[in-house]
Amino acid sequence: MKLNNIQASEGSRHGRKRLGCGIGSGQGKTGGRGHKGQKSRSGGKVMRGFEGGQMPLIRRLPKRGFTPLSRTTYQLVNVGQLNVFEAGAIVDAVALYAEGLIRNAVDPIKLLATGDCDKAVSVSVAKASPAAAKKIEAAGGSVATTA
Asked: Which residues pair with 126 in a beta bridge?
């Protein structure tokens, strides 16, 4: 088999519909658009959610809740994930990002207590749960928080 003699399987390719090419084509006269109305005209489209002038569902339903502008979202790291570092390592945002444990090195990080770390590491994060800090200190490490 070579590139110059490859052919499509029988019936896998169809010719385009020849719209408006006489009665015999089956798509003559109105070209498959039906009779009159907005969708038969050129450029005739209805926007998403349009219900023919009736009040749309999205506007009939009440608005609920709000998003506080001052909310801080933290990237979460568990104590058990810190086992990838060597004993005595300094674990900060850059080190966590390099290991692929967080999405970016800019957003604040919170250390949670799931799992166990048996290596003494120095952790520098924005926040740490009290249980997580206990586990790190029990392993001989230290936790420094900035927030």
From this structure: none
